[in-house]
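Hey,
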Amino acid sequence: SPGYLRGVATILTKLFQLVRPDIAYFGHKHAQEVAVIHRLVSDLNIDVTLRILPTLRESNGVAISSRNSLLSSKERQVARVIYRALLLSKALVENGERVPSVIEKAMADLVARENLVKLEYAAVCHPDTFEEVLAIAPGTLFAIAVHIGAIRLIDNILWMSNGNWLT
């Protein structure tokens, strides 16, 4: 939400001004926050180098999160569908698909097969603005958010501008 992201920007501005780090590290799993941080550093000319690290994953592909510990063993098992949906989007792109709505529907359909998982969104968007893209090209973000019971989980992968994938 805009209020949450404004809070992230305020806290990080204060932190950067107090600590004045040379380098700040953030995880790509929180891509929307990363976009806000990039914009913040650029707009306010904050002298810090940002290093965005790949998402850490459990052996089953689920993005590591403190919220995972709140899931039952069955819920943890079905949470794997999140990463499988993202890998499906990657496979479709690598096979030539470039229509965002086709990818979004494929991700949503895969998630819908798990009755314990409620999709919040499956999005194909610009990684800096989170606005929809008209056609998929390098530099496109594939993001997903779900609810498993009361727990909200997010994940994403990025088709980087150099053609590689950040998964």
